[in-house]
Design a protein that fits this description.
With 303 residues, the protein is α/β, with parallel strands linked by helices. The protein is built from eleven helices and 13 strands. The protein has a nine-stranded mixed beta sheet, with helices on both faces. A four-stranded mixed beta sheet has the order 3-2-6-7.
Length: 303
C-alpha cells in the first residue's frame, strides 16, 4: 500500500442541519446537530487511510477535549500520529450549516492549526522523504505548507497541493507542486477566470500550468473534473447521484486520489477513482462519516 504523508489542519466540525441557509441577521431553528472530525488535512488523511494507505498525519492540536478526541480518531483509523503536536492554543473548530438540498457554508476557526510551524515540518523531514506522496492545503500557515512541499520535492516525493481555502500564493509554490487540485471556486480565484463550464475550467488549467506546476485537476462538482498537463486536457465525466450533504466531498476526492495515485502513478485513472469516491460521499450525511470504503468504490465503478 502507498505511503501518504498529509501536512495540514485538524478541526472539529460542529454540524447543524437546517431547512435552508439563513439570511444576513436571521435566526433559524436547526433540525439537528452533530459533532464530527474534520479539517481539510484530517479529512484527506482519513479518506486515504480508509482505503488502506499507510498514512502519516503532521498537524497541531490544542490541549482540550477536541484535541484529545482528534488524536484518538487518528489512532483508531490506523494513522501514524508520531508528528501530531500539541500547543496551548485551542483546537481548530469549523461550524458548518447544511440545508435540505445539501448546500453548505462553513466558518473555520484555525486555533492550533495556525501554530504549526516550519520547524515542526523539519522535525518530520525523514517521514516526508520516505513517503510516496505528500498532500498539503492552506488551513495552516503558508510558510509551513511551503516548507513541506520543498522537502518533498527535493526528495523526489510527489507533491499534491490543494489550494484551499482560496488565498494569494507565491509563484514559488506552483513550481514545487506536481499536482495542484483546486475546485472551481479556488481555481477562479487563482486564475481570474470565472468557471461556469468545462471549457472555462480547461482555460483555467492552462493558466495554472503556465505557473509551472506539472499537472492540474479542477474539480467541478456536478460537472465532474478536468485533468490537464502540458500535453493533454481531459474531462472526467460526473457520476449522477442524489446529493444529501456535500460537506467534505473535495477532501474525499483528494484523499482517494492520493491513495490511488500511489497505487497506479496514473493521474487520469486516479482522478476517475477519486470522482467515484467523492460522488459516494455526498450521498451520506457528515464529513468523515460519509467517506466510502474501497469496496463501496469498486462496486460503484462496476456499475
Amino acid at each position: 500500500m502507498p505511503k501518504v504523508c498529509v501536512v495540514g489542519s485538524s478541526n472539529t466540525d460542529l454540524l447543524t442541519k437546517v431547512k435552508r441557509l439563513p439570511k444576513l441577521g436571521e435566526t433559524l431553528i436547526g433540525q439537528n446537530f452533530h459533532i464530527g472530525f474534520g479539517g481539510k488535512g484530517g479529512n484527506q488523511a482519513i479518506m486515504a487511510a480508509k482505503l488502506k494507505s499507510n498514512v502519516t498525519m503532521v498537524t497541531k492540536l490544542g490541549k482540550d477535549i477536541f484535541g484529545n478526541e482528534t488524536l484518538k480518531n487518528y489512532k483508531d483509523n490506523g494513522i501514524n500520529t508520531n508528528f501530531v503536536y500539541f500547543c496551548e492554543n485551542s483546537s481548530g473548530v469549523a461550524p458548518i450549516f447544511v440545508d435540505e438540498d445539501g448546500n453548505n457554508f462553513i466558518v473555520i476557526v484555525p486555533g492550533a492549526n495556525w501554530e504549526l510551524k516550519p520547524d515542526d515540518i523539519i522535525a518530520a523531514k525523514n517521514e516526508i522523504e520516505n513517503s510516496d506522496c505528500l498532500v498539503c492545503q492552506l488551513e495552516i500557515p503558508l510558510e509551513t505548507t511551503f516548507e513541506a512541499l520543498k522537502i518533498a520535492r527535493d526528495a523526489g516525493v510527489t507533491t499534491i497541493f490543494n489550494p484551499a481555502p482560496a488565498r494569494d500564493i507565491p509563484d514559488d509554490i506552483y513550481k514545487i507542486t506536481d499536482i495542484i487540485i483546486p475546485n472551481e471556486v479556488e481555481a477562479s480565484y487563482l486564475t481570474g477566470i470565472e468557471i461556469k463550464s468545462v471549457d472555462d475550467a480547461k482555460k483555467a488549467c492552462k493558466v495554472l500550468l503556465d505557473k509551472k506546476c506539472r499537472s492540474v485537476i479542477i474539480t467541478l462538482g456536478k460537472l465532474g473534473s478536468v485533468v490537464a498537463d502540458n500535453i493533454n486536457i481531459i474531462h472526467i465525466k460526473p457520476i449522477k447521484v442524489k446529493a444529501i450533504d456535500t460537506t467534505g466531498a473535495g477532501d474525499a476526492f483528494i484523499g482517494s486520489f492520493a491513495h490511488y495515485y500511489g497505487v497506479t502513478s496514473s493521474i487520469e485513472k486516479s482522478a476517475e477513482f477519486a470522482n467515484v469516491a467523492a460522488s459516494l460521499s455526498v450521498c451520506r450525511s457528515g464529513t468523515q462519516t460519509s467517506f466510502p470504503s474501497l469496496k463501496d468504490i469498486l462496486l460503484k465503478e462496476e456499475k
